[in-house]
Amino acid sequence: MLLVIFLVYFVITPNEISMDMLTSGMTVLPSDPVPDFKEPIQNVTVAVGREAVLSCSVTDLGHYRVGWMKADDQTILSLDTRVITHNPRISVTHDDKLRTWQLRIRQLKESDRGCYMCQINTNSMKKMLGCIDVLVPPDIDDSKTSGDITVSERDNVTLVCQATGQPEPRILWRREDGSHILLRNRPDDSESVDTFSGSTLKLLHLDRRQMGAYLCIASNDVPPAVSKRITLNINFAPSVHVLKSLVGAPIGGNAKLKCDVEAYPSSNNYWIKDHEENLLNGSRHYIHEKKAYAKIISRHYIHEKKAYAKIIMILTIFNVTKSDLGGYQCVASNSMGRSDGSIRLYEVKIPTTTTTTTTTTTTTEAPTTEYIFENAAVTSPRTTDFEMIPIEEEPVENWLFPSVAPASLELETKSSAEDHNNFSVLRLVSVMLFIFR
């Protein structure tokens, strides 16, 4: 008997052990109760990295023993409370009161998924299975997922996103900036959606509005969800849009001309005067560009985003002279083509101011009153301000110059003290005539 135990624990390797070997050399009395399983082993589902526990409850064990084995490869894991396998993540605990043997696997790995067998070494081997399902968070497979891509306008493109995980991940697509995904079956048949489900996103008959970053999001209810950013670039020829083709400025003032340009790849932009003179930065010209922003309205919020491939060309002309008046062209060109827009600069006449004196005399002996319009700001109990309406005004600043409007015209009434007394007498006479009429 001692020889058998020695061979089991010290000589035979774990993969060579069978539970039937433990019964050899053992004497079983007819009166000994036959052990049995108290209840089925509950299957468990555990996320990777956590601890999985399988519980095997046995009744009337007596001098028999309980062991654990992995079902698929018949690897012996433990005998009674002794761990046979060399895997340090596996342990066995025994609750003598409950007659329960627990197989514990710490830091669970995906390779631990499968069924495990609890055995009792009776003459007719008794066994019961319990299974472990390992949940694995999603992971995007870069080798099978699309990367950044550049195509031309009106082409077709297919974006692919593949992910692994347990359970199988769900794939959801959305635009990074919150704008809609434009789906087309034909050029004149389109549908705008916030999100798209599926591992393959087909975009047909592309236009520049579909340019930008797309997010492939993989989730399977096992945190964390993961995503990959795929940038779709669409090549197209420049498009120039002039919001205001006529711009006015006074001589000596400043003028600002603007053009909106869309192009990809980025265009080479410049300004021309009267189709001849190429304008450069200098003491009287300031040329610069700024990024354009678009307002995005989604279901729940409004925000601004940088518009892809769109800029604003700005030409500022200082101290406008007669020679600056005329036509200006904003030009944009790239490898896909060329485009331009035209703006005409004209002179704004500033109105001159005059002083008018009006004298009114009545046929009665009422006082003489003078009404004098003056440019100077004079404090008076009776004044009337005349607001100067700008000749040209636009919501977005187009030209800047100091205010040259005349000061408010004021209506001043002048009368002597004697005239005031005469007026009082006249008013009294008028009242008496009204009473006795």
UniProtKB/TrEMBL annotation:
Signal sequence annotation:
1-19
* Entry keywords, A to Z: Cell membrane, Disulfide bond, Glycoprotein, Immunoglobulin domain, Membrane, Repeat, Signal
Q: This protein is called what?
A: Immunoglobulin I-set domain
Q: What's the chief localization of this chain?
A: membrane
Limits of the Ig-like domain? 35-130, 138-231, 238-346
**InterPro entries linked to this entry:** Ig-like_dom, Ig-like_dom_sf, Ig-like_fold, Ig_I-set, Ig_sub, Ig_sub2, Neural/epithelial_adhesion
Tell me which GO cellular component terms the UniProt record holds: neuron projection; plasma membrane
Task: Give the matching Pfam families.
Answer: I-set (PF07679), Ig_3 (PF13927)
Naturally occurring in which organism (per UniProt): Popillia japonica (Japanese beetle)
| Compartmental location | Cell membrane
